[in-house]
């Protein structure tokens, strides 16, 4: 990706107000990019069900409960959640934390707990449910915004819905409500996802 464009100068007053409100809610400086010098604090965290089977998406109630548990894991470590999405067989989150190893350990504990619970419900003791969570740190702000787009677009990418906001298990509705459609379209154009996810989150999975 090329050098990121500074969006602030291109925004309308309404878009600036929305962006500032969003950044304030995330606990970030209002006018600086979400960046901590050279520290690696921003991560794309993802994990999938074993063989991408729809163990997570058994039903809507299970998916909603999972969303609550997942967000609780991040909240426990006081991670800032910039974006998240839960399709039926995996999940994505764009977070900011200085405790990434602790977050990954907590996610592993969550996987184990839910595997035991779901296998008990389905009488499949010993079945592998999850693959381990993986993280990728954000190299720069262009990578950050492209990841934001990728996470929110993921249900569209996999063919579950046609629009971000139609998927109930993600932060897309909140993002669009706070930032506005025009801002979302602008960041979509300026930070395209291109072949993001190719080879590890292909549309057919």
Descriptive report:
With 205 residues, this protein is of the alpha+beta class. It has one domain: Transposase IS200-like (Alpha-Beta Plaits, 2-Layer Sandwich), CATH 3.30.70.1290. It is 42% helix and 12% strand. The chain has six helices and four strands, in the order H-E-H-E-E-H-E-H-H-H. It has helices spanning 13-25, 60-76, 100-121, 141-157, 172-179, 181-190; strands at 42-48, 80-85, 90-96, 134-137. The chain has a four-stranded antiparallel beta sheet with strand order 2-3-1-4. Helix 2 (60-76) runs antiparallel to helix 3 and helix 5 packs across helix 6 (181-190). The two termini are 26 Å apart. 26% of the residues are buried.
Q: What global shape is seen?
A: globular
CATH-assigned homologous superfamily = Transposase IS200-like
End-to-end gap:
26 Å
Number of DSSP helices? 6
The average pLDDT score comes to 84
Total strands: 4
- Strand line-up across the major sheet: 2-3-1-4
The chain-level structural class is alpha+beta
CATH class placement: Alpha Beta
Q: Secondary structure elements and their pairing?
A:
Blueprint: H1 13-25, E1 42-48, H2 60-76, E2 80-85, E3 90-96, H3 100-121, E4 134-137, H4 141-157, H5 172-179, H6 181-190
Antiparallel strand pairs: 1-3, 1-4, 2-3
Quick synopsis:
With 205 residues, the protein is α+β, with helices and mostly antiparallel strands. It is built from six helices and four strands. It is 42% helix and 12% strand.
Keywords:
205 residues, alpha+beta, Alpha-Beta Plaits, 12% strand, globular, disordered N terminus
